[in-house]
Write a structure and sequence with these properties.
By secondary structure, this protein is an alpha/beta fold. The protein contains 7 helices and 7 strands, in the order E-H-E-H-E-H-E-H-E-H-E-H-H-E. It has one domain (9-250): Rossmann fold (3-Layer(aba) Sandwich), CATH 3.40.50.720. Strands 3-2-1-4-5-6-7 form a 7-stranded parallel beta sheet, with helices on both faces. Helix 1 runs parallel beside helix 2 (41-51). The two termini are 34 Å apart. Residues 197-204 have low confidence and may be disordered.
């Protein structure tokens, strides 16, 4: 697989840990140059250093259109293009709807929806000039079903799915592919922290982990799907959604 993405310039948001970090590492292993972007600058630096010289850390607050424009301009000015954007940044707090404050809802929308929109817009501005590019948004199984105590997150992820489909339709003629990946329960640092705080929590108590495959997914498994979608082998795929949930939606 080495060289599959040779020459690709990729920007991954939310790349300090979890799915974003695993994706950045695999993209570099496949030959890409990757900007490891995250609001957690120290985490981004650590991840980029671990990956090696083909990865560069960048502090990015996805809620800021100015910061999106700056990082995209850096990709183009320093490396000649932006070929791939992976929108992995997200926020999540579980709470019943009646306990979700207006501020919490707005923050979920700002990060998970508007942040996605700003990233798509900034990346597409660069990609349209070359009439080439791929954008992959990390959505969630929460954005495909109703789920108790996850309303703010689900609202933002449902909306982001519509955004991706609209972008895919509008930009297809310009050679830009846009897709969504919908993970289920993935073994990320956030999930591990939740179990460490409450040792009584078992696999079956964690949302979406009661999947037929009977385990958490690994960030590397999601990264593998993203790397495929970024490759020329997926060149005829756009506007599609790819569920990676251990079969949870079958139940």
């Amino acid at each position: 697989m080495r060289g599959q993405l040779e020459g690709t310039v990729a920007l991954v948001s939310g790349a300090a840990s979890g799915i974003g970090a695993a994706t950045a590492q695999l993209l570099v292993a496949r030959g890409a140059r990757v900007i490891v972007a995250d609001i957690d600058e120290a985490g981004a630096v650590s991840t980029a250093k671990h990956i090696g010289e083909s990865a560069e850390a960048w502090r990015l607050d996805v809620r800021s259109s100015r910061e999106w424009d700056e990082v995209v301009a850096h990709c183009v000015d320093s490396y000649g293009s932006l070929d791939l954007l992976v929108n992995s940044a997200a926020c999540l707090r579980d709470a019943p709807l009646l306990e979700v404050s207006e501020a919490e809802l707005r923050n979920h929308l700002d990060v998970n929806l508007i942040g996605c929109f700003l990233g798509l817009r900034a990346a597409a501005s660069a990609m349209l000039r070359k009439r080439h590019g791929t954008i992959i948004n990390i959505a969630s199984v929460s954005g495909a079903i109703a789920h108790r105590n996850r309303g703010a997150y689900a609202i933002s992820k449902w909306a982001a799915r519509g955004l991706v489909k609209t972008a895919a339709l509008e930009w297809a003629e310009a050679g830009i592919r846009v897709c969504s990946v919908l993970p289920g329960a993935i073994d990320t640092p956030m999930a591990r922290r939740a179990r460490e705080m409450d040792p009584t929590v078992s696999l079956k108590d964690v949302p979406f982990s009661s999947a037929p495959l009977g385990r958490f997914g690994q960030p590397e498994e999601v990264a593998g799907l993203i790397a495929y979608l970024a490759s020329s082998e997926a060149g005829y795929i756009t506007g599609a959604e790819f569920v990676i949930d251990g079969g949870f939606l079958l139940t």
